[in-house]
Amino acid sequence: MHILATEGLTKRFPTVTALDQLTVTAGPGVTGLVGANGAGKSTLIKIMLGLLPPTGGSARVLDLDVTTQGAQIRGLVGYMPEHDCLPPDVSATELVVHLAQMSGLPRTAARERAADVLRHVGLAEERYRAVGGYSTGMKQRVKLAQALAHDPKLIFLDEPTNGLDPRGRDEMLTLIRRIGAEFGISVLVTSHLLGELERICDHVIVIDGGRLLRSSAIAEFTQATQSVTVEVEDGATPLAARLAELGHTVTPHGRLLLVEVTGPETFDAIRDTAVDLDLCLIRLEQGRHRIEDVFREEVAGV
Amino acid sequence: MSEIYDIGYRHYDGPRLGRAHSTRALAVHSLRAVFGLGRTARSKIMPFALAVIMLLPAVVSIAIMALIGQRGMGYSAYAVIMQAVLATFLASQGPAIIAPDLRFRVLPLYLSRPVSIVDYVGAKVTAMTAALFLMVAVPLTLIYLGELLIDLEGPPQTKEYLGALTMALVLAVLLSAFGLAIASLTPRRGLGVASVIAVYLLASASVPIFYGTLTSTGNDAVARWAWLINPFWLVDAVQVWLFGTTPNSEGGYPPGPASAVIVVVLIAVAVSVLALRYRKAASR
Known about the structure:
The complex is a heterodimer. Chain A has helices at 41-48, 70-76, 92-102, 107-120, 136-148, 166-181, 194-200, 218-221, 236-245, 264-276, 291-301; strands spanning 4-12, 17-26, 30-34, 56-61, 64-65, 77-80, 154-157, 186-191, 203-208, 211-217, 224-233, 250-253, 256-260, 280-288. The longest helix of chain A is centred in the middle third of the chain and has 16 residues, at 166-181. Chain A is an alpha/beta fold. The radius of gyration of chain A is 24 Å and the shape is globular. Chain A contains 11 helices and 14 strands. Helix content of chain B is 72%, strand content 0%. Chain B has 11 helices and no strands. Chain B has helices spanning 19-34, 42-68, 78-81, 83-103, 107-111, 117-150, 158-183, 189-216, 220-223, 231-243, 258-283. In chain B, α6 packs antiparallel against α7. Chain B starts with 18 loop residues before the first helix and ends with a helix. Chain A binds chain B through residues 49, 51-52, 71-72, 74-75, 77-79, 81, 83-90, 94, 98-99, 101-107, 109, 113, 116, 120, 146, 150-151, 182-184, and chain B through 8-12, 14-19, 21-22, 25-26, 29, 38-40, 43, 100-101, 104-106, 108-116, 282-283.
């Protein structure tokens, strides 16, 4: 079952084409939507919420049509906007209770859900304080909590890690992974940072200029390559030379060496050579494709 | 020792109510916000001070009835006499329920839920209307109860009381639609307050100017139209036409349903402005 599917989806604004014949599907789990700023990510989310009519093509979310069943879709999905959207003079609890009611929950149920989701996103006593005094990290958590308040089937998270420090970013990503895995809520998360999505997504959709660049499972992006990264303290050059003599393909990569693996003997050779040359071996790491590399290649190829 | 168990994420499988429930919840939420309920003590000062001022003439009227056995302020004149207080209430509290959602961009959080923009605007106008209606209806009801308890000569003025309540509702709809339309044009609350009060002052200050000029040149019939510039006298004119009450202006109002037509047109204009404004805000 697809949680969302678009077919030739096009959105033209008077001066710009935001989406151009986009045909893409995504299944349950965590789906990353990647693209540079202005690639059409936010426009796509707004269309899928039924808030923006497409110029052409069609889109279905949870098997509901975005143009005719928008209200139904909005009852089943949660949305965390990219921008600040919290009134400063109310507490997190009050806001989440109110917004859960706006999603159709009765008042008592809304209170319970608000307490639950605020606990899940990691807001404790501070949830009774006015939002105006919160840090950026706490505000992002409240924004996430309101998207979860009505126990949606699917949530759209627009740049959830924006403005967070490295630790806050880590915590947010862990939380998103939990939502997809433990809570059983499908997630569509946008980012312009590919490294982030690598850690949490099952599937990645890459769009650029409103067009689909690639849509595939994360494993295909990051499959192991047949190379190993070697880092030594001084003496990378003699090591490279010796390995080349032994018939291995070596590519210098800054202070690192990338050695092509032909079999288990490659690892032995590296170890033995390092011992022979009396070098300090710091790192020996299995090389992996990073989505960034793929993205770079594909953008260059277009 | 108690232990805290992490029971994990719980799904919600209770009822999901429709748009009507959400709209009602938003209206109640906004009504509470008008009076600063659930907010800081500071945001309660203004609405409650004004509410108390609105009650004072009612208390004095009851005292007059009890002590001298005469009627104090009439039902039909209450809103007109207290118009400055009502206008201040509209100006200070109207932007309070409109501006934050625009300024802090809370609107997308509403629109990403089943509530539509029409529900949203409807709930806001309803909340402000209810608040303004309460500001007038509570003192009127107090006077009426006093009248029943004190048992003045002659029958109680039930018809006047009910007429005044009806007109309080008309006035509340007109004021809230117009006040919120003006307030919605700016996301800044202070500017909204200033705009609403400026429009009211302009309307009420121009009445004596037009009226004075026209009567001094002998155009008495035309001069009466000048009263209709001010919304409070405009609604009073409707009251005179509907219920045959004594006009609260000197020289009376133009005869016929003209004032009622103007009220309807003004409400329609205000609602259109709101609709256009929010359609634009929603598309951002």
